[in-house]
Amino acid sequence: MSVPSAKRVLLVDDDPVNREYLRVLLEAEGHRTLESGDGEHALRQAQAERPDLILLDAMMPGKDGFQVVRELKADEATRSIPVIMVTALDDRAARLRALDCGAEEFVAKPVDRAELWVRVRNLLRLKEYSDLLEQHNRALECQVRERSAQLAASHLDTIYTIMRAAEFRDQETGAHIKRISHYCRELAARLGMGAEFVDTIFHASPLHDVGKIGIPDHILLKPGPLDAGEWTTMQTHATLGARILTRDEGVSAYLRMGADIAHSHHERWDGSGYPQGLAGEAIPPSARIMAICDVYDALRSRRPYKPPMEHAAAMDVILRGDGRTLPGHFDPAVLDGFVHAAAEFDAIYTCHAD
Questions:
Q1: Angle 14-20-26 from CA coordinates, rounded to 5°
Q2: What's the pLDDT at 102?
Q3: What are the pLDDT digits (tens) for 155-188?
Q4: At residue 20, what are phi and psi to the nearest 5 degrees?
Q5: CA distance 62 to 74
Q6: Span 120-145, mean pLDDT?
Q7: Mean pLDDT, rounded, of the chain
Q8: 8 Å CB contact between 49 and 8
Q9: According to DSSP H, which parts of 75-216 are helical?
């Protein structure tokens, strides 16, 4: 009837004679024992030693066994240690109280050797199975974390591959997409978005113009202003980008947000944008953030048809409007966050200048 390997059992009793009797019984079965004479010491010892089983006297001066077992089961570190309450109380109420406090078993004094050993053996086996299950769960959690990290890395590889493909078509994307990532992360954090959202928008926002892959060169690379027909074709890059990034329901969070941004970053809060004419909160939050970041960077950047603006001038256009860009184009909360992050935007542009 012996348990395959020796276990450590903590004996808690204010009477040393009782502890000695239990020690002899348990060591005869090959187990190691620890001893404690009061409840406070037992709690500290259980924390420090993490025994496999505790035999706990119910009636002790100071903190009695009922209080001790309740505190053991309330503590994450000692909750899984099984407890056998050893009590001279033979009334039903005392036994129910012991179980209610969290004890797994109880034995009556004077302790019967055969009864004690059956209960000890069963609880030690249960503890061993519980420990194996916990180890298995930890191993599974580790595997899940590793697999999640591998999937995230794979998704990022996909994003960077798409971005490199876009760079072959549009030479503006190099430093621009780096700045966009940092602008969006800064503004999302400033707006109180969660850490997952902030991380996702940092990696997803560079995909905003990926649809330009599908725009003909004579339009995409035209050095001057576009005519009406060319502008209509250019506007299709938003829908094309969303199609490129939307494959199936299992697509990564980065690509899902990237598709939202690609499709809607030219929508305007007042409904005057494209391709769908969305307004207000119908526009995805990520696209609302991207919209102001994209406009700021476009104003700061040199284009074949315009010189770059200084930070103060770009801020003035966004906050006051210039006919083409108006404050009403932006989510008021995002605009307010942008104003408070203005110094950081200027620093990002300087750090990642063309």
A1: 115
A2: 85
A3: 556 666 666 656 555 555 567 888 999 999 999 9
A4: -65, -40
A5: 19
A6: 77
A7: 86
A8: yes
A9: 92-101, 113-167, 173-190, 195-204
CB atoms within 10 A of CB 235: 16
Q: What is the pTM of this model?
A: 0.58
Is pLDDT above 90 for 107?
no
The neighbour count for residue 69, using CB atoms within 10 Å, is 29
Angle between helices 16-27 and 113-167 (to 10 degrees): 70
Length of the chain: 354
Which CA distances in Å does 140 have to 133, 134, 151, 153? Answer: 10, 10, 16, 20
**Helix intervals (H) in 8-38:** 16-27
Domains 8-139 and 168-351 are alike in CATH topology = no
**Rounded distance between C-alpha atoms, residue 304 and residue 172, angstroms:** 11
Assign domain 8-139 to a CATH class: alpha beta
Give the fold, CATH level 3, of 168-351. Answer: Hypothetical protein af1432 (1.10.3210)
pLDDT at 316: 96
**Domain coordinates in residue numbering, the chain:** 8-139, 168-351
